[in-house]
Design brief:
Elements lengths: L5 H9 L7 H12 L5 E2 L10 E3 L4 E6 L18 H24 L3 E6 H10 L2 H13 L4 E5 L1 H4 L14 E3 L2 H9 L9
Parallel strand pairs: 3-4, 4-5
Antiparallel strand pairs: 1-2, 2-3, 5-6
Length: about 190
């Protein structure tokens, strides 16, 4: 049962942006300042990547931790209508994996930047580290990479101090896809 009326919920959901989010704008602004030119929200590619760098045959997906079900402290299933949200976010995760596989099979290099990496940056002044690694990746040949906040991935009780690591990086596409398509990822254990 929802805690607000249908009209209020409708108004709240209508206000959520699907494109041109704050994390996307942060990444685009930093790339532009570094001299990169790009296209945004490309409908001609699977998954409609947020940023397309044609010259480098690279795309960047800036994922919100909640909407794409990232395993960090910023993703929690809402208490109301949990079954709906678990299914919806599970489907988003599976779609993300399919889109990334389709992009790599068609010759595109893929980068996923999680919202927690941009939040981390604002809190710990580490955004330059993310952008530095990102620009190296763009100019390189690695087919897949993802950036996240490693501290957000650690349990609150683990006692890791803020800033223990600068940037979490994964360049193994098989790990990424497995995390998105396992039965538990979709919220329906076998």
């Amino acid at each position: 049962m929802d805690t607000v009326s249908r009209q209020t919920r409708s108004r709240m959901m209508a206000g959520i942006r699907g494109a041109d989010t704050k994390p996307e704008r942060m990444v685009r602004s930093a790339l532009f300042a570094k001299g990169f030119r790009y296209r945004k929200n490309c409908k001609d590619l699977p998954g409609k990547p947020d940023i397309k760098l044609t010259k480098y045959r690279a795309v960047i997906l800036v994922h919100g931790c909640f909407w794409h079900g990232h395993d960090c402290r910023y993703y929690r299933v809402p208490g109301s209508n949990a079954e709906f949200w678990t299914g919806k976010i599970g489907h988003n995760r599976e779609r993300d994996a399919r889109d990334i596989i389709a992009l790599t099979h068609s010759g595109w290099r893929v980068c996923v930047i999680w919202e927690c990496a941009t939040r981390m940056s604002a809190k710990r002044n580490a955004f330059n580290s993310v952008i530095c690694h990102l620009t190296e990746w763009i100019r390189g040949t690695v087919p897949f990479i993802e950036f996240y906040d490693p501290v957000a991935m650690v349990a609150e009780t683990a006692g890791v101090r803020s800033g223990a690591w600068e940037t979490g990086i994964n360049s193994d596409i098989e790990v990424f896809v497995a995390e998105r398509t396992s039965p538990y990822a979709a919220g329906r254990p076998d």
